[in-house]
């Protein structure tokens, strides 16, 4: 133990003595780690944001399916579902997508049934009157609108309707509310020209999450033309999308890492005459091959840990402070209206572990054989230099 | 008897066209406390013999005994431990690590051992005081004069309290007065009980009263054994 | 196949360690064929140099195994939201039958690599390396195991599809299930305790006896006891230790312990158990080597270290396991 500490100290001194070579290596290494770390942090932050938002979603949503197509669902289904044991509440919802030709973007229009409810992250109020609406930050930004301004939308009869903006969702919940427009349900029915007996789908809240699967089966049994979707299913769809995207970017970064390891190998093999002489001296005065390999291992570990620290901090700043400017172009295709990043800085120990494992292990493995090659220098060497 | 060799041979590049017999059946004995000069023309195998005696390489055939124990087939880690604990080596070219401080340079042999850093430093300082170098402890090795470098190299050889001090042409790079200084230091060490083995071309050494015995090598074989 | 960073890291890492081990066993094979301890030829010197490389390849391999074991469990936990029905690592492992096999092979590989590294150290302390041949023969067996680990891991992860509906601890460790694991959970706490406490008591008695006596038989007994105790302890974790740690009457999951939510208490718990087991095996394994004159003094010296480390490991494990039983308000077995 003591011995390893002394060798560690010697390795540290050795690194500072060969500053030029090591600083260059450290910077390239740290840059590779920062690139990989940015991808990991960004996708993880997006994923956890999506999940947080979905936490408030209903446990189950029931849609009606006709010939495989999403169809309007009769409101009476809600009553049937509400009577199933275990169901706390079944609420018919009215919502739909709306294409705005002026700004060429898709919005999500949704009906509110209880305008009194308090919603987190909402500035202003939920719409109470028929000509009021609450909008997401993305829409407010597109139209440059603030609370009290009015919004013009074209309804199902092709007529312009004017809505006063009563509230705006703040950036915190941007991922789900970004392109959202909320209005009182009767107003939305009129806007979409919907029959009062139908709804878009039914949100079901369930007391015991363990019963979701059973209840889904029961709903299918009683209402064979429906499709129950549980929240965990929505969650894992999100997760799969994120995993796929991050996987792609990740593969690219790993290629960079491999390139770096080749560089590291090259550096480690091309050992200078000075270093070779030093190792000869160490061996001649009583060090064995294992001692020399130990200092080489410590050198590698110090180098990769410092690169890891620098790279991780750089990635963190890049993603959470600067908003990942280098990565957004790749992720943009994900959504029509991509929410601007106001990512909560999350640091998951697991992500750090993955990043550490991915970047430190290959480097140490790459330097193992070159280190051994220098360490077996014959001690006699010192007598003939 | 401290060191003994029996039919010691060293053949370099064995089985290849450039095969070379550097030592041929050398048998000799070194007693505790002796001071021996190893002479012979260039290429006669002095350095080769010293490296075998100092546990730095292994013979092609024959045996080396240290303190009654055969060391010629020991695994490397045991040879290294022997070098560290019982031998002090003074090289012809000083072999200091240029941009390391004097105290760090002389501490190197003890780093893999069991002593704590404080104990190593204490030992290092006492050796430096013995050699009049205490005020240079923090200076880098490359900023020292030749004579000072030589004394640092000696300090490094002494830090492990070795039983045997081996020097390979220690005066090759020194002028007359520095050679005298060196001989004074070696005499003091010898008086302190150390065994000395010095390979040299320099008459100033092998005619010095310190030397009790001279061994001469010729083409890898012992030429004669002279009494003092 | 899911392109998850953790999965890529695990597969890449496994591939790397297989490559390191292939290199090591190639060198080991050369040594087995050519080693001649009495020769001082250049070739023999080169072989001796190779032993250093093999040691460090194996050290790296062991370090890798430890980290990758942790990473495997963490990854399996991290990807559970991808599977309907999975609520923790158990759910992911169940998504594909190979999952549990991977865990088993990883455990075996850990013990094999750790034993190799420890006996290699012991051998290096002697001047004549009497364990050289058995050592490098064993190496030839570890390498296929690492390869198995890689292929099993690959087939596990490539068989995972996000639409798999799996079952989780709720059903797997439920007392009504039919699998071996649910048998364990169904093992009534009283029965599990009746097995666990005596075997732990025997372990302590034997270890203390070994510390006082040089008797080889005691060490063989300790060896067997430690293996039995290891499996009983794992069963006990599922059967009742987890209940106390979670303070819930029916939460049997052995992996949730590793979560931040439970302060990562599972890591010291399992580290204590694995460490205590590993070092408890050593005196029994080393006892037959006493007849090598060059090893016996070293074994005598190390024997005490091993016994103490084993004792410390087991005690850490036991302390964590017993703490909530003794001091927490939750009670599983009501008196009366
Ligand atoms: N590593 C080696 N490989 C091949 N030949 C070597 C090697 N080292 C030394 N020799 C040869 O062995 C012979 C003896 O060398 P050695 O260095 O022992 O002589 P020396 O007596 O110390 O000479 P000098 O007085 O010049 O230092 C020389 O001919 C030299 O060329
Ligand atoms: Mg010479």
Tally of individual helices of chain B: 7
Outline of chain B, from the CA principal axes? globular
The average pLDDT score of chain C comes to 86
Domain tally of chain C: 2
Poorly predicted spans of chain C: none
Largest sheet of chain C: none
The geometry of chain C reads as flat
Count the beta strands of chain C.
0
Structural class assignment of chain C:
mainly alpha
Query: Whole-Å distance between the termini of chain C?
Result: 54 Å
Distance between the termini of chain B: 18 Å
Q: Spans of chain B of 5+ residues with little confidence (pLDDT < 50)?
A: none
What quaternary form is this? heterotrimer
Q: How many strand units of chain B?
A: 10
The structural class of chain B is: alpha/beta
Strand order of the largest sheet of chain B: 6-7-8-3-9-10
Level of helix content of chain C? over 70%
Strand content of chain B: 25-35%
User: Radius of gyration of chain C over alpha carbons?
Assistant: 22 Å
Helix content of chain B: 25-40%
Largest interface: A-C, 41 and 36 residues
């Amino acid at each position: 133990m003591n011995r390893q500490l002394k060798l560690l100290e010697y390795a540290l001194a050795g690194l500072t003595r060969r500053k030029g070579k090591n600083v260059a290596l450290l910077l390239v290494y740290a840059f590779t780690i920062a690139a990989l770390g940015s991808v990991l942090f960004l996708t993880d932050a997006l994923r956890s944001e999506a999940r947080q938002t979905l936490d408030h979603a209903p446990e189950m949503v029931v849609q009606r399916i006709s010939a495989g197509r999403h169809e309007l669902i009769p409101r009476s289904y809600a009553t049937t579902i509400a009577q199933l044991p275990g169901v706390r509440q079944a609420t018919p919802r009215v919502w739909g997508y709306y294409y705005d030709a002026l700004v060429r973007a898709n919005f999500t229009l949704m009906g509110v049934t209880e305008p009194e409810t308090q919603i987190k992250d909402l500035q202003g109020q939920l719409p109470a009157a028929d000509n009021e609406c609450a909008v997401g930050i993305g829409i407010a930004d597109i139209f440059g609108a603030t609370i009290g301004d009015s919004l013009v939308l074209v309804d199902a009869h092709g007529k312009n309707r004017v809505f006063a903006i009563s509230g705006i969702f703040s950036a915190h919940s941007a991922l789900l509310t970004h392109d959202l427009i909320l209005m009182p349900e009767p107003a939305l029915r009129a806007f979409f020209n919907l029959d009062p007996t139908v709804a878009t789908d039914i949100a079901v809240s369930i007391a015991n999450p363990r019963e979701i699967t059973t209840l889904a089966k029961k709903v299918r049994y009683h209402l064979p033309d429906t499709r129950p979707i549980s929240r965990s299913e929505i969650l894992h769809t999100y997760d799969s999308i994120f995993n796929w995207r991050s996987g792609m970017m990740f593969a690219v970064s790993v290629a960079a890492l491999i390139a770096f390891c080749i560089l590291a190998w090259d550096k480690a093999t091309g050992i200078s005459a000075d270093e070779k002489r030093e190792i000869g001296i160490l061996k001649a005065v009583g060090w064995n091959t294992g001692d020399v390999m130990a200092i080489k291992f410590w050198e590698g570990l110090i180098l990769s840990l410092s690169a890891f620290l620098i790279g991780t901090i750089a990635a963190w700043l890049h993603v959470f402070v600067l908003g990942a400017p280098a990565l957004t172009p790749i992720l943009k295709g994900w959504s029509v209206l991509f929410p601007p990043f106001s990512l909560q800085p999350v640091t998951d120990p697991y992500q750090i572990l993955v990043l550490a494992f991915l970047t430190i292990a290959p480097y140490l493995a790459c330097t193992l054989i070159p280190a051994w090659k220098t360490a077996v220098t014959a001690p006699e060497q010192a007598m003939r230099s | 008897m401290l060191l003994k060799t029996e039919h010691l041979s060293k053949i370099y590049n064995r089985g290849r066209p450039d095969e070379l017999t550097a030592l041929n059946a050398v048998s000799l004995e070194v007693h505790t406390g002796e001071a021996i000069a190893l002479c012979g023309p260039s290429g006669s195998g002095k350095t080769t013999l010293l490296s075998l005696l100092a546990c730095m390489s292994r013979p092609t055939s024959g045996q080396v005994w240290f303190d009654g124990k055969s060391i010629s087939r020991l695994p490397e880690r045991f040879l290294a431990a022997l070098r560290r604990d019982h031998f002090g080596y003074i090289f012809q070219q000083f072999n200091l690590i240029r941009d390391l401080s004097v105290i760090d340079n002389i501490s190197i042999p003890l780093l893999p051992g069991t002593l704590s850093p404080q104990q190593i430093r204490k030992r290092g300082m006492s050796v430096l005081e013995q050699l009049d170098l205490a005020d240079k402890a923090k200076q880098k090795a490359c900023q020292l004069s030749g004579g000072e470098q030589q004394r640092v190299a000696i300090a490094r050889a002494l830090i492990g309290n070795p039983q045997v001090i081996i020097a390979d042409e220690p005066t090759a790079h020194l002028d007359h007065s520095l050679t005298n200084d060196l001989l004074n230091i070696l005499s003091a060490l010898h008086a302190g009980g150390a065994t000395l083995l010095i390979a040299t071309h320099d008459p100033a050494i092998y005619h010095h009263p310190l030397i009790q015995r001279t061994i001469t090598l010729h083409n890898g074989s012992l030429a004669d054994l002279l009494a003092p | 196949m899911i392109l998850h960073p953790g999965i890529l890291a695990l597969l890449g890492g496994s591939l790397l360690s297989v490559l390191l081990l292939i290199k090591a066993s190639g060198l080991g094979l050369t040594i087995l064929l050519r080693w001649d301890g009495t020769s001082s030829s250049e070739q023999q010197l080169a072989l001796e140099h190779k032993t250093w490389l093999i040691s460090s390849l194996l050290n790296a391999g062991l370090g890798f195994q430890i980290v990758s074991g942790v990473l495997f469990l963490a990854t399996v936990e991290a990807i559970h939201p991808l599977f309907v029905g999975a609520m923790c690592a158990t759910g992911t492992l169940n998504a594909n039958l190979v999952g549990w096999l991977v865990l088993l092979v990883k455990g075996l590989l850990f013990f094999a690599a750790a034993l190799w590294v420890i006996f290699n150290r012991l051998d290096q302390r002697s001047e004549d390396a009497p364990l050289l041949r058995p050592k490098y023969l064993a190496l030839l067996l570890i390498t296929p195991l690492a390869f198995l680990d890689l292929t099993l891991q690959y087939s596990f992860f490539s068989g995972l599809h996000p639409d798999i509906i799996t079952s989780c601890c709720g059903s797997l460790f439920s007392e009504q299930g039919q699998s071996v694991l649910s048998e364990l959970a169904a093992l009534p706490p009283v029965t599990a305790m009746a097995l666990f406490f005596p075997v732990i008591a025997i372990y302590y008695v034997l270890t203390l006896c070994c510390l006082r006596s040089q008797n080889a038989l005691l060490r063989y007994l300790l060896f067997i006891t430690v293996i039995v105790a290891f499996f009983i302890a794992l069963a006990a974790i599922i059967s009742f230790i987890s209940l106390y740690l979670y303070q819930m009457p029916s939460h049997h999951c052995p992996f949730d312990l590793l979560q931040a939510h439970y302060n990562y208490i599972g890591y010291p718990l399992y580290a204590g158990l694995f460490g205590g087991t590993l070092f408890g095996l050593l005196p029994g394994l080393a006892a037959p080597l006493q007849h090598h004159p060059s090893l016996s003094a070293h074994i005598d010296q190390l024997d005490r270290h091993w016994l103490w480390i084993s004792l410390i490991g087991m005690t850490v494990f036991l302390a964590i396991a017993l703490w909530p039983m003794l001091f927490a308000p939750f009670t599983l077995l009501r008196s009366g």
